[in-house]
Amino acid sequence: MNFSGCHIGDKVDGLAKIKKYFHQFGYLPDPSVDNFTDDFDDSLESALKTYQLNFNLNDTGVLDDTTLQQITLPRCGNADVVNGSSTMKSGSGTTTNHSDSSSNIHSVAHYSFFPSQPRWPSWKRDLTYAFVPENQLTDTVKAVFTRAFLRWQDVTPLTFRETQNYNTADITIGFFSGNHGDGEPFDGILGTLAHAFSPPDGRLHLDDAENWVIEGDVSTSSSNAAIDLESVAVHEIGHLLGLGHSSVPEAIMYPTISTGLKKVELASDDVDGIQVLYGGNPNGSGSTGSTSSQERDSSDGGVQYMGSFKWALSLVIGGILLVL
């Protein structure tokens, strides 16, 4: 389907799927979820402009190529707009002051929180996590999550430890397919990768259909659908701790991630946001910044996939095949 250049007043076959995408991530209100039309109406234009602001795009209200490319990127399943309010900063940000003995530095913060800023209570700083027993994950896969938790532990007073008691764990982690009972069904390869619930719910769900890379350099994968598991795990743990999405592309809490990209280092925006909720860790390294790689090679270079599967890229997102 070719949606490039669509604007208000147009009627294009398949535009209802774009509306469903915006509904899924909070940009369109709940009514008529099963009644979307192919008309480019006022509500779609408004949703599109908000989306464009959140992702630092020109807020033209037109489905231009750049916007369509952003829509097709794999992403977190958590909504960007909750109860009609954007949890992202819509490209504006909030000015924060960082003072020391020699300077008063002003920076723009783009981190966000869930409505009412839920967080783990002050008396609970040692959080336990457990994996869905039915998944029977290997130690190698579990180690990915251990590393992901340590990145947040390093900059907060929180600690994380695995427990074998799934029923009493503060945080539960599992891989699921399709409709798995929480009202947020997965959609297969790419599209929605994972989602997590705000404190103190503690549920982290990942799409079992993804071509998860657990070891090796994801940028050398020969698969066009390879997703780095640790990168997604670090992002979703941010949600478990109370962070919403950020409009800073370098931030871990940015909603989308490209295939073949490894992005595991917390950016300063992530650190500032989580420390608003919990304060810092005086014993942590305090390291910030982000590293990434999008280079690909024709060989797999020792890349290890979960379940040893390699998937071909057979769809883009939610059944939408876009022609740019």
From TrEMBL:
Keywords: Calcium, Glycoprotein, Hydrolase, Metal-binding, Metalloprotease, Protease, Signal, Zinc, Zymogen. One of its GO terms (molecular function) is zinc ion binding. Ca(2+) 2 binds at residue 170. Ca(2+) 1 binds at residues 208, 210. The active site is at 236. Zn(2+) 1 binds at residues 180, 182, 195, 205. The keyword Transferase does not apply. This is Peptidase metallopeptidase domain-containing protein. It comes from Aquilegia coerulea. The lineage of its organism: Eukaryota, Viridiplantae, Streptophyta, Embryophyta, Tracheophyta.
